[in-house]
Amino acid sequence: MSRPALVLVGPPASGKTTVGTAVAAARDLPFRDTDRDVEVETGSSIADLFVQHGEPNFRALEERAVARALAEHEGVLALGGGAVTSSGTREALVAYGRAGGTVVWLDVDVSSAARRVGLSRDRPLLAVNPRAMLRTMLEQRAPLYAEVATHPVATAGRSPEEVVAEVLAVLTPEEAR
Prior knowledge:
The chain is α/β, with parallel strands linked by helices and 177 residues long. The protein has one domain (6-172): P-loop containing nucleotide triphosphate hydrolases (Rossmann fold). The chain is built from 9 helices and 5 strands, in the order βαβαααβαβααβαα. It has a 5-stranded parallel beta sheet with strand order 2-3-1-4-5, sandwiched between helices. Helix 3 (46-53) packs across helix 4 (55-72) and helix 6 crosses helix 7. The protein is globular, with a radius of gyration of 15 Å. The protein starts with 5 loop residues before the first strand and ends with a helix. 41% of the residues are buried.
């Protein structure tokens, strides 16, 4: 059975795509983002899915996308920031970690995340008051990220290169291929 070499979790603007694509390139592995999988499957943006069909519908699509990717992807996998709110996804990630997989939680503080997000219209949960929503989101989801992570990596005040180096250092030789 195939499995990802690495799974990245973390809140919006923690650097999952930036770090994931760099780690994938450094290890000559494919990169996959489950938010992108949902967009391709539905033909809609994440923001449009939230507006047109609601968050519960999006979360169901996301849970299926994560399960599929965990089963078939052999490279670096980045999950959407809220994927860990699904108990099914958390169970799958914990099982993956127990089986020897690496789940890195890219942890970020509110001020760094707010700077990175800016006024992005592509983040539906942050549309109204980004700083307050980020603070609430980080506080509520931190225990969920901690539950599934095999390695937390702080990103605040660090360059992408520093974070990538730390993530590369936690990969086992088999995962790094």
